[in-house]
Amino acid sequence: MREMREHAEQEYRRWLENTEDDSSMHAELLKLMGNDDEIFDAFYQDLSFGTSGLRGILGPGTNRMNVYVVRRASQGIANYLKKHYDRPSVVIAYDTRKDSELFAREAAAVFRGNKVKTHLFGEVTPVSVLAFAIRQLKCSMGVMITASHNPKHYNGYKVYNSDGYQVIGQEPEMILEEIGRVDFFEGIHRKLDNGVMTVSTRVSEDFIRAALKRPPHISPEAVNQLKTVYTPLHGTGLKYVRSLFKNVGYSNYTVVRSQEYPDPAFHTCSTPNPEKILTYDEAFKVIDREGGELIVATDPDADRCGAALYHDGVRTIVTGNQLGLLMLDYLCHMEPPEPDQIVAKSIVTSPLVNQMARKYGFKVVNNVPGFRYIGNILARLDQAGQGNRFYLGFEESNSFLVNPFSHEKDGITAAMLIVEIAAFHKAQGKDLIDRLNEIYEEFGRCVDKQRNYFFSGAGGRRTMDQIMTYLRREVRTRLGDKEVIRKVDYLRDTGLPKADALEFDFHDGSRLIIRPSGTEAKLKVYSFETDDFKSVERDMVRIIERFSQV
């Protein structure tokens, strides 16, 4: 720890020396002077290029998101592209967060400075449209400036391969190696000219046309019997959701005015995450005032979609797992799957999918968390001329791919499908929760929950590692009052990509999965509960508190 603190202090002084001509950054660095803990947290490491590229808190420092970190990452990626492509090209998009457009233009300047053909969207754009554009424009890679659903003080830098999903396998490590060879202040080539090409509006129009190739299964008249409140959460989804609704003839919806337009400060929802019930507060106010039966929300980069409603008079969120089950149930009735069709999901997605597969005959393909693995499955099917085998892909994190014209999760098309499903069930006198309970009655009740335990700084990372090590070594046959009948360590050879995750299966059919987040300093604990789970919860809290107090 002492060496890390010395390194952080040295790097801080180096940044002070090298930013004297950058008055804004220099002023931010001067504000840190004398605050040893803040200097340490900002400089003790380089912001990690992890499962979702770069993601971190905005601010000065090597462990923060700022123009110097963005330039360095872009130079490293440019070096990688030049080594692996004869004529490299990249397309860049950005969301509505603070500094997103600035970071996108800085990345474009670096790619142009390295003679990489560069396309840049001229306005805020969803992730799914960026992923679609990569293949439309035949680019080597794509870059999305976003921190997705993270709190307002975060931003990030996602990297996509030529097939339109986030880089996987050895590619992230190879990119990280290239970035590691680049200094923050030297050897970065920037070119500020008009050589960057603006992405044509035809790409967005083609995206909507492709989405419409899987039209609703019920008439516009039937869909319009449902009144929806839609919120883009100050993000990128508004234009595209509106366009899709218009093209299918759906007009009985209201947009949450207080969240309609971009707001980098996210004043109405500091954590714009469709997985959280508090995120829907403004939308529930609209329902209370104007009426409505369903809330649909897309996160800031519109790759995730969530839903909430009043059920029996109580504000109720429909979890990502529950939405996935409802989608699967609906599609199986409306367009029954062929025996060789695939539903792709992650290990933290509801096990009820396997029960439904026995009835409907589709094949379930599991993978470790990360939607890029689902994108990879679809890309390989497309390459083999078997893209029609892909039936549905979803993860518990409100990530859905319901229309396989794209290889990335897509909150835009998911929003339309959720509205369609709710309208269909309304015609039968039911809401989404009513139908979900019917699914539980048929396939078995399995309530899914997610608990997050937050940590901070270098010490937080070490604490999470200690907790995972203890669970690997010491917990074998019992958690709480439940007998463990199967334990899976996904760092071992499971036939899937290795991941820092542990699974405990219990005698009563319930399941617990623990993994550190790939994007935030938190431990994610997923439970699939068939019975009382309180003793397991208490045991997990005891273990976490034991190491947190060390």
Automatic annotation (TrEMBL):
Look up the EC number in the record and give it: 5.4.2.2
- Record flagged with keyword Cell membrane: no
This protein's pathway: Glycolipid metabolism; diglucosyl-diacylglycerol biosynthesis; Lipid metabolism
| Domain of life, source organism | Bacteria
What is catalyzed by this enzyme?
A: alpha-D-glucose 1-phosphate = alpha-D-glucose 6-phosphate
- Outline the extent of the Alpha-D-phosphohexomutase C-terminal domain: 474-537
Q: Which cofactor does it need?
A: Mg(2+)
Residue ranges occupied by any Alpha-D-phosphohexomutase alpha/beta/alpha domain in the UniProt entry: 48-183, 207-311, 320-442
Query: One GO molecular-function annotation for this sequence?
Result: magnesium ion binding
TM ranges are none
- Check the record and name the InterPro entries matching this protein: A-D-PHexomutase_a/b/a-I, A-D-PHexomutase_a/b/a-I/II/III, A-D-PHexomutase_a/b/a-II, A-D-PHexomutase_a/b/a-III, A-D-PHexomutase_C, A-D-PHexomutase_C_sf, A-D-PHexomutase_CS, Alpha-D-phosphohexomutase_SF
Per UniProt, the enzyme's principal EC class comes to: isomerase
UniProt KW Glycoprotein keyword: no
The alphabetized UniProt keywords are: Isomerase, Magnesium, Metal-binding, Phosphoprotein
**Pfam families listed in its UniProt record:** PGM_PMM_I (PF02878), PGM_PMM_II (PF02879), PGM_PMM_III (PF02880), PGM_PMM_IV (PF00408)
Query: What family does the Swiss-Prot or TrEMBL record give for this protein?
Result: Belongs to the phosphohexose mutase family.
Can you name this protein? Phosphoglucomutase
Q: List the source organism.
A: Eubacterium pyruvativorans
